[in-house]
């Protein structure tokens, strides 16, 4: 896969080249937002990794420009460690994922593989939401990316689930990404379901997004499990 | 001639002078009188002798002619023996024309030495000559005896010299007695006179002696018997707050105007007066009395003022020393000094002042030695040592005075250790706040090297796990980058630590370039992210200044963040804001080491320009700034004898310039590369 990395830090850029090459990707680099956009227009890579904090044009601005020019381009933003405000801001601008600095190999690999899967899903036009019933609960399986487009589907799924069972499990695929608007809808759904007396659990969400849900206060309303099989209601 | 008299007292002088003058006058009179009287007497007796001789010559002319010797003899005996004349007339004899003695009154043979002893000239009327007759001397008077025109003989009358001398002797004794009497009377009179004249002067002298011994109250001059005046009548005597302006013309011209003229002066002075009449001594006495009174008043005031200042000295809340300029030793110290410094007074007196504060003492003495410094010198935050060796901070006020005739300095030291410590705490607190503000930026800054390191090591691990071999070029690249990034991270941490360190209380030599480098290395990337460029224009080498790097960093940080805020504020509402620009300059200007921070932000409005250094003054929204930054900065800069200047134009930007005196003696060649 061809990946464009935008970062003002030359050492970081160098490391990105080495490590992404080692992972078998083709790497384009840019040292500033402006340069990144130029490369982007010229090369049209499907995936862009951009630092957020940069002198001149910052990552948010780059993200906005890229999304304006080509909605389909996947953009993963690199944020400072624990800077969730910026991460959420980026997600609201339809960034597909974010990686914390310092960038760990696993996180990078995860983000890249999620992006690849998402691209595949998008390509296959697979259905994002599925409901099936377990003995003790209704399971909502989420695949691909949840975005503003999936708002009504999400609401329907919750309505169905809460009608059939008291307990609801949100089962996220490893590659799931949720954008800002979708998070808001999700939070809304969970709140109303709880108000109806439902208990909600979730499973399988990547650490990144679990962090986002933490910050949004959703984690306190639901119990999180690693896998669907682990979910047990008291 | 009069010099031996100079040692005499006035009375004796008067006495001597009067006596001498009278004596000289009487002597002259006596001599004159004696000369006149004696010569007159002699002449008179001569005249009488001549008369006798002429009488004999007239009456005996016929007898001579006839040579009637018995008659002639009878005549001359009659003449000689006539009453008291016999004492005077010693002898008479008559010669004829041929010089032959016709008769004589000697009861013995005619003494041959008389023959021709007193010849009479042919035409002479008279001849007087002193002749010797036996054992005695006599004045021989010869007159001619005539018959018609012819001379027929000569009559000689001998006047007894003994008799004349005894008469003169009597006269002399009389004069002597007279003069003696005059002397005795003069002696007495002049003695009384001298006494009378010199008595007031003697009294004044005695009083002056009393005064000079400091015995003002026993001096009798104010209590002269003729005085109806009482001390309590003078309001200035009992009320020393109201000095007697009557005498004090100097003060009257200056201070009286300010204090309101009339109330400070008695309408009529009950004391001061000068009698119209009286001689010079009486005038002197009056002047003297006025003088004594005025001295008395001033002595009272002086002693009151002395007591006031002595009690101020003793009860003052701050240690006060009197230090000799020449020996540099302590001459006196107040009780508070004992308390604060821990030395006893006996130890303090005579101690070298440098023992209390070596650096300051040296500076202080140098300052007073260079030319005459008439004013006090104030030195803030000087380190002094207690007896125990514990240092403390004092603000020192040194004033030159004259103490017991010697040039000295009054040194008042206020213990401000607590204040300095509080100050340090406040600065530390503000620094911690700055650190807090910086933390996000610093975290980001620290994340960069960590990121590169992490990715590098991950790359190594990944390739290793994948069983691939790493090309040596790549391996080297990664390893070099990792160690470079570790250095970078530890650099950031060092700067942060030095910034956050609590400033110690001692000053050092600081190169402002170092300060600038430290601060900007912490923040410049962060500022870049805010679209603010920091440009450095450092003069190298730069002279040292005496300060604390740590606190100066705080000042610079405050200035730079203020500049950034001004730029950010300027940007608000602008569609395409220009890039922010902060220029930090170091330079030397007229013996001052300067540091300036220029921004292109909003600028400071004129009306708040002089308020910006006030504590808690802020133009920022509530919650964003405490308004302490510039106040603290100002305090710090003033602590190092520096000052802050502002030049600002609204809408164009602001320049803050710090000026510090250069450290004397330091070369300042240190390079500004240390971060």
From TrEMBL, chain A:
It comes from the Bacteria. InterPro entries: Bact_response_regulator, CheY-like_superfamily, MlaB-like_STAS, Sig_transdc_resp-reg_receiver, STAS_dom, STAS_dom_sf. GO terms for biological process: phosphorelay signal transduction system. The keyword Phosphoprotein applies. The modification 4-aspartylphosphate is found at residue 51. The keyword Membrane does not apply. Keywords: Phosphoprotein. Residues 2-116 form the Response regulatory domain. Residues 127-234 form the STAS domain. PANTHER family: RESPONSE REGULATORY DOMAIN-CONTAINING PROTEIN (PTHR44591:SF3), STRESS RESPONSE REGULATOR PROTEIN 1 (PTHR44591). This is Response regulator.
UniProtKB/TrEMBL annotation, chain B:
It is found in: Cell membrane. CDD domains: HisKA (cd00082), PAS (cd00130). Residues 441-664 form the Histidine kinase domain. It comes from the Bacteria. Residues 305-350 form the PAS domain. Coiled coil: none annotated. SMART domains: HATPase_c, HisKA, PAS. InterPro entries: HATPase_C_sf (IPR036890), HATPase_dom (IPR003594), His_kinase_dom (IPR005467), HisK_dim/P_dom (IPR003661), HisK_dim/P_sf (IPR036097), PAS (IPR000014), PAS-like_dom_sf (IPR035965), sCache_3 (IPR033463). Its EC number is 2.7.13.3. It is a multi-pass membrane protein. It holds the Pfam family HisKA. Signal peptide: none annotated. PROSITE patterns: HIS_KIN (PS50109), PAS (PS50112), PROKAR_LIPOPROTEIN (PS51257). Its main location: membrane. GO terms for cellular component: plasma membrane. The keyword Lipoprotein does not apply. It catalyses: ATP + protein L-histidine = ADP + protein N-phospho-L-histidine. Keywords: ATP-binding, Cell membrane, Kinase, Membrane, Nucleotide-binding, Phosphoprotein, Transferase, Transmembrane, Transmembrane helix, Two-component regulatory system. One of its GO terms (molecular function) is ATP binding. It is an enzyme of class 2 (transferase). The chain crosses the membrane at residues 14-37, 171-189. This is histidine kinase. The lineage of its organism: Bacteria, Pseudomonadati, Thermodesulfobacteriota, Desulfovibrionia, Desulfovibrionales.
């Amino acid at each position: 896969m061809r990946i464009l990395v935008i970062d003002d830090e030359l050492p970081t850029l160098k490391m990105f080249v080495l490590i992404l090459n080692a992972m078998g990707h083709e790497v384009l680099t840019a040292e500033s937002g402006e340069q990144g956009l130029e490369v982007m227009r010229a090369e049209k890579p499907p995936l862009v990794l951009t630092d957020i904090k940069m002198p001149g044009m910052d990552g948010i601005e780059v993200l906005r420009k890229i999304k304006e020019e080509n909605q389909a381009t996947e953009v993963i933003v690199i944020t400072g460690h624990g800077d969730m405000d910026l991460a959420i801001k980026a997600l609201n601008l339809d960034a597909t994922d974010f990686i914390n600095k310092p960038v760990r190999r696993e996180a990078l690999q995860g983000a890249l593989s999620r992006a690849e899967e998402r691209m595949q899903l998008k390509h296959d036009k697979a259905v994002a939401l599925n409901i099936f019933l377990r003995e003790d609960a209704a399971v909502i399986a989420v695949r691909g990316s949840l975005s503003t487009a999936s708002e009504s589907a999400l609401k329907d799924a919750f309505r169905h689930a809460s009608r059939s069972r008291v307990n609801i499990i949100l089962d996220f695929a490893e590659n799931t990404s949720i954008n800002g608007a979708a998070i808001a809808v999700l939070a809304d759904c969970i709140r109303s379901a709880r108000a109806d007396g439902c208990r909600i659990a979730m499973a399988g969400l990547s650490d990144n997004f679990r962090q986002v849900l933490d910050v949004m206060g959703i984690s306190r309303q639901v119990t999180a499990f690693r896998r669907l099989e682990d979910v047990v209601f008291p | 001639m009069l010099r031996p008299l100079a040692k005499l007292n006035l009375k004796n002088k008067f006495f001597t002078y009067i006596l001498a003058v009278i004596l000289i006058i009487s002597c002259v009179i006596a001599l004159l009188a004696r000369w006149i009287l004696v010569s007159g007497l002699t002449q008179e007796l001569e005249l009488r002798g001549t008369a006798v001789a002429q009488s004999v010559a007239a009456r005996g002319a016929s007898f001579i002619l006839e040579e009637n010797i018995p008659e002639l003899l009878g005549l001359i005996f009659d003449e000689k023996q006539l009453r008291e004349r016999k004492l005077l007339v010693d002898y008479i004899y008559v010669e004829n024309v041929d010089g032959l003695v016709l008769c004589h009154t000697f009861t013995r043979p005619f003494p041959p030495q008389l023959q021709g002893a007193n010849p009479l000239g042919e035409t002479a009327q008279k001849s007087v000559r002193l002749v010797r007759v036996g054992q005695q001397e006599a004045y021989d008077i010869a007159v001619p005896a005539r018959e018609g025109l012819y001379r027929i003989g000569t009559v000689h009358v001998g006047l007894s010299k003994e008799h004349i001398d005894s008469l003169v002797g009597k006269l002399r004794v009389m004069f002597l007695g007279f003069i003696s009497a005059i002397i005795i009377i003069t002696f007495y009179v002049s003695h009384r006179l001298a006494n009378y004249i010199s008595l007031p002067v003697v009294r004044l002298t005695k009083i002056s002696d009393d005064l000079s011994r400091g015995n003002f109250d026993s001096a009798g001059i104010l209590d002269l018997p003729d005085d109806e005046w009482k001390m309590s009548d003078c309001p200035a005597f009992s009320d020393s707050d109201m000095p007697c302006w009557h005498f004090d013309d100097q003060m009257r011209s200056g201070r009286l105007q300010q204090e309101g003229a009339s109330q400070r002066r008695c309408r009529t002075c009950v004391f001061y007066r000068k009698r119209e009449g009286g001689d010079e001594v009486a005038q002197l006495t009056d002047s003297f009395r006025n003088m004594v009174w005025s001295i008395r008043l001033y002595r009272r005031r002086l002693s009151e003022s002395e007591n006031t200042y002595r009690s101020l000295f003793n009860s003052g809340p701050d240690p006060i020393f009197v230090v000799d300029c020449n020996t540099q030793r302590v001459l006196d110290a107040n009780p508070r000094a004992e308390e604060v410094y821990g030395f006893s007074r006996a130890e303090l007196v005579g101690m070298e002042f440098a023992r209390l504060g070596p650096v300051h003492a040296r500076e202080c003495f140098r300052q007073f030695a260079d030319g005459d410094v008439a004013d006090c010198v104030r030195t803030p935050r000087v380190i002094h040592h207690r007896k125990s060796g514990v240092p403390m901070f004092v603000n020192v006020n040194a004033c030159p005075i004259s103490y017991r005739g010697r040039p000295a300095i009054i040194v008042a030291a206020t213990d401000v250790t607590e204040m300095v410590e509080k100050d340090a705490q406040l600065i530390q607190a503000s620094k911690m706040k700055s650190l807090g503000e910086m933390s996000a930026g610093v975290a980001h800054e620290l994340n960069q090297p960590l990121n590169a390191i992490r990715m590098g090591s991950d790359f190594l691990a990944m390739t290793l796990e994948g069983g691939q071999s790493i090309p040596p070029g790549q391996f080297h690249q990664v390893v070099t980058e990792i160690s470079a990034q570790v250095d970078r991270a530890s650099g950031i941490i060092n700067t942060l630590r030095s910034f956050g360190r609590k400033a110690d209380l001692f000053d050092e030599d600081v190169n402002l370039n170092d300060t600038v480098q430290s601060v900007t290395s912490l923040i410049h990337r962060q500022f870049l992210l805010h679209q603010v460029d920091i440009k450095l224009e450092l003069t190298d080498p730069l002279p040292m200044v005496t300060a604390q790097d740590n606190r100066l960093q705080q000042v610079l940080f405050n200035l730079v963040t203020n500049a950034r805020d001004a730029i950010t504020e300027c940007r608000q509402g602008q569609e395409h804001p220009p890039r922010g620009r902060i220029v930090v300059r170091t330079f030397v200007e007229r013996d001052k080491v300067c540091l300036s921070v220029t921004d292109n932000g909003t600028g400071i409005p004129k009306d708040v320009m002089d308020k910006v250094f006030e504590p808690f003054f802020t133009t920022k929204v509530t919650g964003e700034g405490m308004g302490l930054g510039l106040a603290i900065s100002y305090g710090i800069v003033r602590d190092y004898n520096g000052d802050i200047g502002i030049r600002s134009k609204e809408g164009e930007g602001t320049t803050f310039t710090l000026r510090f005196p250069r450290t004397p003696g330091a070369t300042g060649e240190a390079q500004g590369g240390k971060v």
